[in-house]
Amino acid sequence: MINPISHGATPAEIATYRVEPYVVAADVYGVEPHIGRGGWTWYTGSAGWMYRLIVESLLGLHLEMNKLRITPCLPAEWSTFRIHYRYRETFYHITIHNHGADAVVCRVALDGVELSDDFITLVDDGRDHEIELEMRPSEFQKPDVL
Fold first, then answer.
1. Which regions of 45-125 does DSSP assign to beta strands (E)?
2. Any idea of the CA torsion for 13, 14, 20, 25, to the nearest 10 degrees?
3. 95-116 pLDDT per residue, tens
4. Is the predicted pLDDT of residue 140 greater than 80, yes or no?
C-alpha cells in the first residue's frame, strides 16, 4: 500500500490511482467514489514513513542511544547485502548474510569478535568498524546465542 509503484502495474490501476506512480502519496482513499485514488503526493511526512519502513522494518536497524540492534525482515532471495552506517564521525560497515526464508539473527560479530547479545555498542572513535551478521532459518538458531 505504501509503495507507489504497486498502484501502477496496469493502465486501469494508473487511471484509478491518478497521481504520480514514482512519488509516495500520504493518502490512498478507501471510500467510494475514490477507492484506490492517491492524494497528497510530494508530502514530506509520507516519504519519512517510507524511509522508516525500509530502514527499521525491512533492514532492521534500530538505534537506542548509543546501541544499535539489527533485526532484518528480509525476502529469502536477498542472500547478502551491505549497509554503511555513520554514527557521528565513525563508520560501521555492516554485512548481512541471509541463509533462507523466515531467517533470524543467529550470529553478530564486531570487528571479528562474536557478540553475546543482540545490541552493538557504538563508539565514536573516528575509525571504520566491520559488523557481520548471520541469519538462518529459526530451526538452526543456537538457543544460547541471541
1. 61-64, 67-70, 80-87, 90-98, 103-110, 113-114, 119-121
2. -20
3. 999 998 888 999 999 999 999 9
4. no
> Which DSSP letter does residue 139 get?
G
The cell numbers describing 28, all together, are 490512498
C-alpha to C-alpha distances, 144 to 1, 61, 105, 117, nearest whole angstrom: 38, 22, 12, 10
Q: Looking at this protein, which amino acid is placed at residue 82?
A: R
pTM of the model: 0.71
Round the average pLDDT of the chain to a whole number and report it: 89
Q: Which three cell numbers stand for residue 140?
A: 538452526
Q: Which domains does the chain have, with CATH numbers?
A: 4-44 (no CATH), 60-140 (2.60.420.10)
